[in-house]
Specification:
2 helices, mainly alpha
């Protein structure tokens, strides 16, 4: 008892849901201790870089009302 479907340009997409494989994929290998340590080190390096950029950039982003504005001599009309 087969249902008829509308024709589509890519017929294999329409038939993909009816295909079921009986082959199971191989189990995933566990990461070694060195790989886990490398992932942690990479994550910590990225986090430290983000925190460091914020620490260095915060003085530039802070607004200081007491700062004097420098004007060039040419803007004074001299």
């Amino acid at each position: 008892m087969s249902r008829r479907r509308e024709p589509v340009p890519f017929a294999f997409l329409a038939e993909a849901d009816s295909f079921r494989s009986n082959v199971t994929p191989p189990p995933r290998q566990r990461a070694s201790a060195a790989e886990l340590a490398g992932r942690w080190l990479l994550g910590l390096t990225i986090a430290a870089g983000l925190v460091g950029s914020l620490v260095i950039g915060m003085p530039a982003m802070s607004h200081q009302a007491s700062a004097t504005t420098q004007q060039s001599v040419a803007s004074n009309g001299r």
